[in-house]
C-alpha cells in the first residue's frame, strides 16, 4: 500500500478515534472493513486515492462518521463524495454533554473540598490529583476502554497520591515544590493514555494527544479570559450596589470555574475540533518567528555575560521555561502540519527555531554545570540540569531530522515519529523527579 494512501487511512482512523465514543476494537474492525473495500476497488482498476474516496463513501452510508469526516475536511475532494444526510435523533451529543457536566461538577466539588480541608502545601501537592482523574475518566468513558485498561489508568494516580502524601517533605521546601510541579506533568501523560484508549504504543495516537494538548490549552485560555472578564464585570456591578461578593468569588466561583474549565475545555476540543484546527496554523506561524527573535535577543544578552557563574539563578529558571515553551510550540506545529506537504519556508523557520533553542540549551547546561561545580548541588539545580539534558537530546535529534527534511533527504514522518517516540521520556523523567529527588536531599 502506497504511503499517500496509508496517510489517508491514518487520518480517517484518527478522526474516528477522536470524535466517537467507540472502542479500539471497533475502530480496528472498521479499519479492516475500509481496507477490504479499498483492496477490492483497486483490484477493479481504481487508483489508491479513488479507491479510498469510494470506500469512505460506502461506509458513510452505514455510519455518520464519514459525513462528519467530510464536513471537517471541507476543502478536500471527498466532501463531494461522502456528504450523506445526517441521522436525526441519535442523542449521542446530549448524553456526552451530561457526562461532561457531571464530571466537571464532581471535579469542582473535589477541588472545593481540597481548598477547605487541606493545608496550602498539601493542596499544592494534590491539586492535579483533584482534577485530572476526572478528565482521564471522561476519555476512558468516551473511548470505552476495557476494565484492564481502566485499572492501568488508576495505578499511576494512586501511586502518585501515596508518594506525595506519605513523603515527609519539609514544609515549603524545595523538594516539595519540585514534586508539586512535576506531578501534573506525569498525570497529564496518564490522561494521554486514556485519550489513546489505552493504546499508547501507537505513534499516531500519541501525536493526536499532542494535538489535543495544544487545542485544549487554547480553549482553556479562552475560557479563562472569558471567565475573568465576566467575574470582573460581576464584581464591579455588585460593588456599585454596595455588595461585597469577592468572598463568594474566591471561595466558590474560582475553585468551581477552574476545575470545571479543565473538563469542559477537553469536551470542546472533542466537539468543536475543526474550529481550533483552523486557528492552529495561524498561531504557529505567528509565534514561531516571534519566539526566534526572542531567543536571538537572549543569546545576544548572554554573550555580554563575562562569567557563567554570574548568571542569575532566576534567569536560569526563566530560560528553562522558555525552552519548555519552545518545545511545546514545536510539538504543536508538528501536530498541526499536513505530513504530505513538501518542505517550505515555514519548515526552515522551524529549523532555525530548533537550532537557536539548542544553542540556548547548551549555554544553560554550561552555566548550570559551572554553578554546581562552584557552589555545590541543590534539588533545584539537579532537576534543572536533568531537564536541560532531556530537552537537549530532543533538540539535537529534532535538528538533525529537520535538516534532513528541508534538504529532501528525510520524510516529515521521521520527525513526527521521533517526537511521539520521545514523549514517554518526559513521563519517566517526571516520575523519577517525584520519587527519587526528595529522598536524595532528605526531603528538604
Automatic annotation (TrEMBL):
Keyword field contains Transmembrane helix: yes
Protein name, entry field: DUF4153 domain-containing protein
UniProt xrefs under InterPro entries: Perm_prefix_1 (IPR047928)
Superkingdom: Bacteria
Keywords: Membrane, Transmembrane, Transmembrane helix
Transmembrane feature ranges: 97-115, 121-141, 148-167, 173-195, 216-240, 252-270, 282-303, 315-337, 349-370, 382-403, 423-441
Amino acid at each position: 500500500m502506497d504511503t499517500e494512501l496509508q496517510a489517508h487511512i491514518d487520518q480517517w482512523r484518527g478522526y474516528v478515534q477522536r470524535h466517537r465514543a467507540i472502542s479500539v476494537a471497533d475502530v480496528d474492525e472498521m479499519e479492516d472493513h475500509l481496507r477490504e473495500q479499498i483492496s477490492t476497488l483497486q483490484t477493479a482498476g481504481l487508483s489508491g486515492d479513488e479507491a479510498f474516496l469510494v470506500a469512505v463513501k460506502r461506509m458513510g452510508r452505514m455510519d455518520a462518521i464519514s459525513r462528519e469526516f467530510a464536513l471537517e475536511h471541507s476543502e478536500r475532494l471527498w466532501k463531494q463524495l461522502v456528504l450523506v444526510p445526517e441521522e436525526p435523533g441519535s442523542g449521542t451529543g446530549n448524553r456526552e454533554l451530561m457526562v461532561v457536566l457531571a464530571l466537571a461538577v464532581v471535579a469542582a466539588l473535589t477541588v472545593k473540598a481540597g481548598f477547605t480541608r487541606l493545608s496550602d502545601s498539601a493542596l499544592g501537592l494534590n491539586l492535579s490529583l483533584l482534577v485530572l482523574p476526572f478528565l482521564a475518566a471522561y476519555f476512558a468513558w468516551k473511548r470505552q476502554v476495557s476494565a484492564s485498561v481502566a485499572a492501568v489508568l488508576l495505578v499511576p494516580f494512586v501511586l502518585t497520591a501515596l508518594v506525595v502524601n506519605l513523603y515527609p517533605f519539609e514544609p515549603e521546601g524545595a523538594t516539595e515544590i519540585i514534586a508539586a510541579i512535576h506531578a501534573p506533568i506525569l498525570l497529564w501523560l496518564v490522561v494521554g493514555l486514556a485519550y489513546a484508549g489505552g493504546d499508547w504504543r501507537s505513534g499516531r495516537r500519541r501525536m493526536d494527544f499532542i494535538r489535543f494538548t495544544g487545542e485544549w490549552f487554547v480553549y482553556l485560555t479562552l475560557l479563562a479570559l472569558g471567565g475573568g472578564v465576566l467575574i470582573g464585570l460581576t464584581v464591579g456591578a455588585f460593588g456599585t450596589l454596595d455588595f461585597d461578593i469577592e468572598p463568594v468569588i474566591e471561595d466558590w466561583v474560582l475553585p468551581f470555574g477552574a476545575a470545571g474549565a479543565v473538563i469542559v475545555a477537553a469536551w470542546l476540543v472533542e466537539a468543536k475540533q475543526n474550529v481550533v484546527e483552523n486557528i492552529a496554523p495561524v498561531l504557529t506561524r505567528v509565534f514561531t518567528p516571534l519566539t526566534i527573535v526572542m531567543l536571538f535577543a537572549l543569546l545576544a544578552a548572554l554573550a555580554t555575560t563575562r562569567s557563567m557563574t554570574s548568571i542569575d539563578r532566576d534567569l536560569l529558571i526563566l530560560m528553562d521555561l522558555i525552552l519548555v515553551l519552545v518545545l511545546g510550540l514545536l510539538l504543536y506545529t508538528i501536530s498541526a502540519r499536513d505530513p504530505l506537504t513538501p518542505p517550505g519556508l515555514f519548515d526552515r523557520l522551524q529549523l532555525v527555531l530548533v537550532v537557536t533553542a539548542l544553542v540556548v540549551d547548551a549555554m544553560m547546561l554550561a552555566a548550570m554545570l559551572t554553578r554546581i561545580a562552584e557552589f555545590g548541588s541543590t534539588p533545584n539545580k539537579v532537576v534543572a540540569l536533568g531537564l536541560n539534558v532531556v530537552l537537549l537530546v530532543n533538540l539535537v535529534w529534532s535538528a538533525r531530522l529537520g535538516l534532513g527534511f528541508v534538504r529532501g533527504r528525510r520524510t516529515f514522518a521521521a520527525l513526527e515519529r521521533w517526537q511521539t517516540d520521545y514523549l514517554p521520556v518526559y513521563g519517566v523523567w517526571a516520575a523519577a523527579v517525584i520519587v527519587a529527588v526528595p529522598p536524595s536531599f532528605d526531603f528538604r
